[in-house]
Batch of 2 targets.
Target 1
Amino acid sequence: MATVSSSTESALVLGRPSLAEVTRTVAGIVERRTPRAWWAAFALTGSLTLVLLAMLGYLVTTGIGVWGNNSPVGWAFDITNFVFWIGIGHAGTLISAILYLFRQRWRTSINRFAEAMTLFAVACAAIFPMFHVGRPWRAYWLFPAPNAWLDLWPNFRSPLIWDVFAVSTYGTVSLLFWYVGLIPDLATLRDRAQSRARQVIYGVLSLGWRGSARHWNHYEMAYLLLAGLSTPLVLSVHSIVSFDFAVSLLPGWHTTIFPPYFVAGAIFSGFAMVVTLMVVARQAFGLQHLVTMKHLENMNKVMLATGLIVGYAYGVEFFIAWYSGNPYERFAFVNRALGPYSWAYWIMVGANVLAPQCFWFRRLRTSVPAMFAISILVNIGMWFERFVIIVSSLHRDFLPSAWGMFRPTWVDLLTLAGSFGLFLTLFLLFVRFLPLISMSEVKGMMAAREGA
Amino acid sequence: MNGKQYWRSLGQRRESAEFRQWLEREFPEQASEWTGSRRTLLRLMAASFGLAGLTACRRPAERILPAGRGVEGYVPGRPLYYATIMTLSGLATGLLVETHEGRPTKIEGNPEHPSSRGAATAFAQAAILSLYDPDRSRSVLRQGRRSSWEELAGFLRSHFEAAGRGEGLWLVSSAIGSPSLARLKALLLEKHPRAHWIEYEPLGREQELEGSRLAFGRALQPQFRFDQAEVILSLDADFLGLDCLAPAWITAFARRRRVSSPSDGMNRLYVVETAYSLTGAMADHRRRARPSEIPALAQELARELGLAASLPVVQPGAPRSWAEAVARDLKRHRGRCLVLAGPRQPAAVHALAHWINHALGNVGRTVYYTEPAVRTQAERLHDLAAEAASGGLRTLVILGGNPAYNAPAELDFAALMRKASVSIHLGPEADETAALASWHVPEAHFLESWGDGRALDGTASIQQPLIEPLFGGKTAAELVALIAGYPRQRAYELAHEYWTAQWPKGDAERIWRRSLHDGVIPETAFPEIRPAPDVPRLRSLSAAPPPAGAELEVTFLPSASTYDGRFANNGWLQEAPEPVTKLTWDNAALISPATARRLGLQAGDLATLERAGRRIVMPVWIQPGHADGAVSLTLGYGRLRCGRVGRGVGHNAYPLRLSGAAPEAAALRLSKLGRKYPLAVTQEHHSMEGRPLVREATLEQFRRQPDVAARQGPKTEPFSLFREHAYTQGHQWGMAVDLNACIGCNACLLACQAENNIPIVGKQQVRRGREMHWIRLDRYYAGGEDDPQVVWQPVACQQCEMAPCETVCPVAATNHSPEGLNDMTYNRCIGTRYCANNCPYKVRRFNFLDYHKGLEEVQKMAYNPDVTVRMRGVMEKCTYCVQRIEEKKIQAKAEGRPLRDGEILTACQQTCPAEAIVFGDLNDPESRVSRLKRDPRNYSLLGELNTRPRTSYLLKLRNPNPEMESLESS
Amino acid sequence: MPLPFTRSADRNLRIFFSAFLLIITGSITLFSFYSRPQATEIGYSPVQPVPYSHKLHAGNLGMDCRYCHTGVEQSAQAGVPAAEICMNCHARVKSQSPLLAKVRESYQSGRPVPWVRIHRLPDYVHFNHQAHVLAGVSCVTCHGRVDQMAEVRQVAPLSMAWCLDCHRDPAPFLRPRELVTRLDWQPERDPRELGGELMAARGIRPPLNCSGCHR
């Protein structure tokens, strides 16, 4: 028993580094001079972010008309991007909360990373509901604020209002969770800081952490509570996002399978994104011995599993469409697979269902290039999943006379690109100024092993 | 506002100069006067308020500008209604025009008028927009340079002194229906006996009159009584569409298609035509035929009826059996049937039609004859050309119309005009003709000038203005008076003098007032004439045989948007989808699918069309049901000298149009150009996918099982998870649309646009699928693509009792009213578009951009002050004209009485010539709408979704001739 | 290198954060309080081009509102009088007063007097004077004791919430039709009771749905 566990754990940290070495490796990334490559990357993503801002500015001053949306396709890239980014955000909480509660030790060296990613994804996601409305300057009406002029409240029956609550709660809790987890490491950075500025900044951020037993005691308790708190959110957020569609009566949207299907899809895409970024990061900062093949392999396994769930959902949708006997439903799904947007549908199936099957094979599961490629595919596939659900359902619904086609404009495309820019920019800042691996937890795990 | 209101005091309206000045002067300021126009002014401000995010900021000082002197009997904020007429190709239809603070804002049909009977056509509805068109010409031009009416007057006086007896003076006017103008014409010709006057209309009806001349030896106008006819055969006559001379025709026709119980009867319509017209869509039996086959078929029919045994046998391939069957059906309905031929048909075909009607004893019953209201003489343009060639043409006066653009191609009118030493053009805009004329005079819009006119049946009306000429336009009468050196010069005087002279001195003024009030002048309809057919002449007659083996034949159609090109600058009309093709902002060469296959063409391909050495380029559009081996070209596009809206829209087909008896028959060469042209259609999918949307049955089926409408729908017992409301209190508004009456004419769509301040979005936005029309006139094809039937379905917001849009709106901007309306609150809407996504009828329209941007003040005057102008980023949709509902409710309250059924008319209902739309209170079991809801033909669109729509539809019926089924299946 | 933080750092940090929070919440509260229509709208009393005194005309002279605001019973708009109406009297009374110069000028030229609007509703609100007056809602309910104002000022917020208060419970604000312009009138008995009877008698059911005012 002990041997097994020790063997698995040894796979999580290679080469038996000393605790000091771990600290040096991780903190070193933050303390070292900024590498040129970082600046290059930052310049690229930074300019993409500027593009995003420009596009949003254009949108607000000119109107939704700058996008390709029309009647009947009232939602297109906007909500697609929203659901996509929210989905990405799921891996973080899952890894840090659920795996934590399940005592999955392999989470330790990746959770920080995943949580950060969650935050940034949620930030990107939040943009779209805010700006997809025709009058963004009135978007605050979405919040239940009493109003002396109108004496009006939002319509609590509307899934969009549920979204507002779900997403904001999720964002807040994730942020707290992530920050609390950071505190000990921030303290470490403070103590190692060479410059006064760093001392002060990290000092303030670490809230006077001294690592006393009492501190640790409170810390563990808080962390456990937050984990418990955010666990249900992992399931709730995307279930509620899926209600935007499930609650409507549109064929292709009006489906009871959506909540579980969306959650699975979210975790699927989240893990894909973690892998994509992690593979790059561990290479760039030489963390192979902390983020080991074991971690990556586990994540790939999760992707394989969730990928299968998603594939099953695709299948069941068709079965139900046929089984329900509802002609509109049937048409909607035939139209998905064979209609004018079938190309999107088959990209989705190829990338989300077929590609992950490679992970059945150990060789591919443990090959960095392979998993990188596949994770990218899955990211693309998951974006298209949302595109297919939204656009292909909207563009042909009940009355053929009202059918239409959606064609994205350059603004649509640049906005999407820009959102990636923002995401990556935030990410680069994170890896540059904060420990991207939770030193305390890794060391804690190693210490536990020493003890064993 | 109490129903229609008329002249309180004629004197005040007529004489008081200050009132006119007041109107004139106030217009710029008026935008800031009274709530109504204030709305339009403040619209953009609202946007900036919005941006500021806080409507609570200190507000800018805002002025109220009351008139210096009051206007008698006029209450600010209350609309007034005046009766007037609109004249198209010389024929008048009666209108009732609503004005707010002196601005005409909405046009309705005048119930008193014989040719409108309360209905107004799409063209009439859109006239409001043309009135406020800032691109109308604003001053007299001399050689293109700014001049003045006085300068022109001076010039003319001297010029016509020289002209003497009028040598070399030619006048080309549009058709003259106006008696007072006719008199001035006579006076002028008296003064200048050598002068020539041609009445020309590009869409003239010379063939019709020529036909009657052949048949009866004199030019007579056939007048139809469609409500008397049980069987109607139309030989290429689109009498429900663009060949319709009086909306009342449609009303009369539609009344014979009201079927509420299995015992009711219904008329039967046979149509022979080349392109797909509105009439063809209503047909119970439609035969598509190349232009040259139609005379043949008419002849065949005549022979079947035993009339013209001597007529030459038509070339083989003529549809004997079809004509046979029709003939039998006609014979069965002697005196109760009607045969009519269209204006594109040669005189001979008209003559045959007259003859057949006479032989079948229809004359005096379903058709009678009167003097023609207008006589145009396009052929005389050739004399003009000859004179010009011989150098005899000195002075050319063009009174209205745009011959340089639309005259027969072989005349080369432009060159002809240059030959005249002096040419004077009167027209609403600086058009192609104005550009060539040495003088251009802006023509006053009919809503801003005095005049008179005759309806088809001769009934005369006064055309009274509702506003002073915005751009100082003049009328044809005024210009003629000036040329003729007539003592009186003002349009009002000319009309008033003429008419009061007709009446006994004593009560002339009284009759005049009465005529203004009613919109018709009593006892002016033409008397009926009983002509005898000139049988020997008819026997010898033969419809012109077609040119042998013409590869492609061509026919020219009026445009549903621009008519003959005159409405090209009207954005409402340009954006109104052509009923059958659903094309907007363009015309196209229509060909049948088979022809397209043969020529390897696809919709949107550019092609060169060549005819008699002339060639044009045009995109082709594939029109199911179009005759094979023929091309239909829509006229009225490709205007080059025109306002900003219409300039260069579409392609000009006139260069291929030659004069002569049946120009269509001449062959045409069409070759693919290898380039595509972007066309904007509002409906891209044309089949119902087997869904029970438009439910249709034959009269027989309906008689066998009256509940056939219900049977065609799915069997469902819908239930709701939400608590259901009981709509039992107060009024409960509902609507029923009779698909058996609807002819798909777009009048409702434009009435709605005018009433509800619906913006124009332009071709690019239409291509993106963002047209804003609240009413979508769905058109579906049934049957094979070669010869399908067409059905219509006007779809606006269905006002669902269980509205899917309401539950999903996050800010509760769309809610249900206790009267069952699905309220849309623009000022609460933030524009998530979720409601539109969740609307199964897709009738919600979103302001993707600021479609009201950059309007000039004069354009804002067209807005209806009772309806909010929607800003960018908000959703909008049909409200059942809630502003009209509220208005009438308040009025009833004020008068302390309950609302009467039919008192509230929605804009679409009021203008519908087919009376297909009925609106009313469902809680009143005796209201018309309640009775229709109990009609066995009544069904809900997508009722199976349990949306409980308040708008329902009545089963579409066809009344096919049983003995024809067989040969159509074959 | 000395440590950046002293013993008190922890406390200071706490103080700083709490102060920060306090300022944020405080400013939001203040802002929302002073941006209420009650604060922004009521009391708006611009200077008019002609120093017309309602106190004098409607109050002291006891002229009826409808003498000048002629449209109030027949139209959505009460209407601001044409200079002509002023001149009906002022052709004789104070015919030379310099204060009336603008009015006389307007009467002669027909060019309007540019009065400044006080009671303003947004474009998307369709208020109808006729409906309210005929239902027995007095001028005073919305415009206050104009007969006591030398210079008219806005007394009601004219906000939607305010409108709805009355639409939800109109009884206390109703009176017999003929008394609507009697600004000083007070019912002898419980106004709610009287209003209730009037509502029943005239079938008054003020709309509470959006399209009642927004069209």
Target 2
Amino acid sequence: MGTVYGAYRYQVYYDGRTEQDGYYASGKSAGWYYDVAQLIYGPHIIRRSYCAGVELDGGVHLFDYIEPRAADQSRFTLTATLRNAVVPSVAVGILTSRISSGAFARYTQLRENANIIGTISPGSTSATFSLTHDQAEKAQLYGVKFFPASEFGETSSTAIPDASLVYTPINPASRGRVTDLVPGNYASIVASEDTEISYTYHHDYGGYAQAWLGVIAVNQDTGKNVLIARKKSVSVPDGGRGTFTIPAGTLSAGRWTITISAAPAASANYYADTDDFWVTGQEFVYTVRENPSASGVVCDGRPIPEVEWTGVSQAAYQVRFGDYDSGARAGTGTSFIVPRIFRDGAYPVTVRTASSAGTWSDWTETEYVTVRNVEPAGDFSAQAAQDGVNMRISWTVFAGAAHYAVFRDGEMIAVTDPDADQVIDRLGAGGSYEVLAVTADRYYKSSGQIAGRLRLAADLISADGGYTWLAGRLTPERKSQPEDVREDISFVYYAGREKPTAFRTGQKNRSKSFVYVFKNRTPARTLRSLVGSEVIVKTTRGEHIRGVIPEMNWGDARFVSPSFQIREVWGEEDGLEYPTE
Amino acid sequence: MSIRLNNVNAVRYRFTVWRGGAPLVYNGRAVELEPFGSGTLIHDNGAELQDSIQQTFLDYRPMGVDFVGDILRVECDINGQTFPLGRYCVTTERPGSSAGVRTVEIEGYSLLWILTQCKIETIRTWSAGTKYTEVIAGLLTEAGFTEYEIEESSAVLATDRADWDIGTEFLEIIGDLLAEINYNPLFADFSGVIRATKYSAPTLSGVTHTYTEGRDSVIRADYDSELDRFGVANVFIVICDSPERTATLRAEAVNADPASPYSTVSLGRRVPHIERVDNTPNLTALQDTADRLRSESMQTSERIEITTAPQPDHEANETLLVQVGDLAGVYRETGFEFELSPGGQMKHKAVRVIV
């Protein structure tokens, strides 16, 4: 073993460029190492030359050394070029046992245990070497050394060779390829589930089984790369079926190109770690779909209930509680406070979620939730009194109230801030009022039912939301004003059934008829101008209706006696929501 | 095999507007369009865009709806069960007024409409050996679709292809290619996924919906049927005479089924139908096309139109088993139509299949 004095230069070229160029100080670990895994497929020139003043102890020295990063390097070409004739021949050796770590140890093992795979004879300037399959099979790890042949009993020399070593991985004649993917090309897979993909593996590389499998996914929109699998020593015979799994959550929703690279054992390690391994793989395309699901629906059963669920791949959701329907709401949140106040009782609740692609899950199995109010302690009362042509509902302040909710005949007509102590009911004509002092924890204290009736000298009609009322008093021709409530039901007869099947709209049509007599035409004309408009009528009998006058029948010439119908429509206070945010 | 009905049924059609995969929100709530009167939703296997919708809504424009980019979604709730009825590009809006109520009448088409908007701007060439499915997938991706499923096929282009003029719609190119490999026409399913599926002849075991009269019947007693013998052939010859091929390919399929009244056996004569195609991946595909023509010819003599309760689980290419009155048999559905109103019924058009 000699000692190297001075320094030597090493250079790595690729594609005409110098990739590495530097100097090592000399020492016993006189080899330098270049990780083949960094190499891109193609010829690399690895050159090292000693600088002047280098002296070798014993005249034998590892000249150059190529170490694959972790595995056998089975098929490659080494072209050794001797540029000076100071050594009569050089030998190239391989090591077929595991190389110890450490540069010096590697050097030593190579020097002592390497098998010669060829020499450059005296007078030659270059030679090419490659491994046989047998050598490749036996080798676990091996390096290549390039050293004067004297090490192996040839003529020795203490002179320093100036030589280069060209390392060229051999493009295998046949690579592995895969066919018959299940699920097939362009199929959909579900993001939130493990997807096992099976394939048939083919190769014609002398009976070798598949040794490497690489699967990489690239999102077609974002270009994001995800490594799915990088398996070594996957044993699938030619024509056999193999599998790999895309784990749940690995790929997001979208379009992904899956590149599958496979290589036979004997050739795999040429490029299994290189870009080439991936670049030359086969491409398949999958649509990754989110399969949204909702489950585990629970509810706290408070009067303003909070519904929680477990959502998978959720970008939007929809909650139904009793007769309330939230409609689609964008969001990944898995809880929702229903913006209504529910009285004690059992209510059905169900939830569904949508993925970012807008695909809806099924509705969850309907659960029945019992709502139970825990009434806060304390006194609370309210009053209802006429205020001009409106009703005023006022109450005593309730400590701890977050809002006050005012109901008329069971319908919420107003929600106030905590510092309010009254509301004016402009639309109604009285009824049974109730005020709820709702606390921050979504329980309520009820004022109890308060009867309050508007006493009017005549019916009033307004076309501006109840702020001004039609001038001129309207006198009804008759005492009763008929009201009509109906729902459009379709009855359909199907062949073989004895009785019809009914389809309901779920929407009620309520209309009320009025007939008035006017002695002069001015108020009558004003009334006529309201045809097609939304109006509110309050009657002397404490009734009210808000709707549209679709048409009006004009009376006789002397006493104008218009008759009309108001068809109730959806109003602002219908479906009023309790503020939950 | 059909959606069961209760004695009293609540049917509701829901119209929502989605922008970029999320519901459009206005004043904190998802925008839901209020229908004004009844509309129709039509699926027609023979139509270029397959699905269309017509409906009048209360004026939705103040809610920020912009159908230049927004997508209309339709769902049907039947007794609490929800079914998607497709995603639509609204192509026409007609603002109007009815009894003082401002309305907008819309016409919309399936997402395939986007593929009619996309056209090739230069002559495209696809090399021989390229898989048909890859060409189709490439066009769908280029058109911006991410949700599509193309049934796998190993068929490859037999020759270099640059057949289509500048300005040809993507949908036309895809349609041509699908026909060459004997696929069904492209369609968008009601969940919004664009699908290319292989054609398969209807079979008894492939019945997807059953409509029979009886205790749980959902089929109306009234129906229409017609027999159309005009143009019925019993020998189908398909010829591919592409100038880029060295030889003319020819495939022939003969209807010799004694159960078929138009077969060569029943008629005692050959009635040929000759069809020429521009290209084909191979002779097998050409033979499949001939077989398909034969199969379809055995369906087309009897056309029916039946009415059922709304059955929103239908998609393209369904196979029906029908028994009502004198009508009984297996039929291939060619189209259906929903009346978009509570109590509205569903009409189905179908042709009889000899199985």
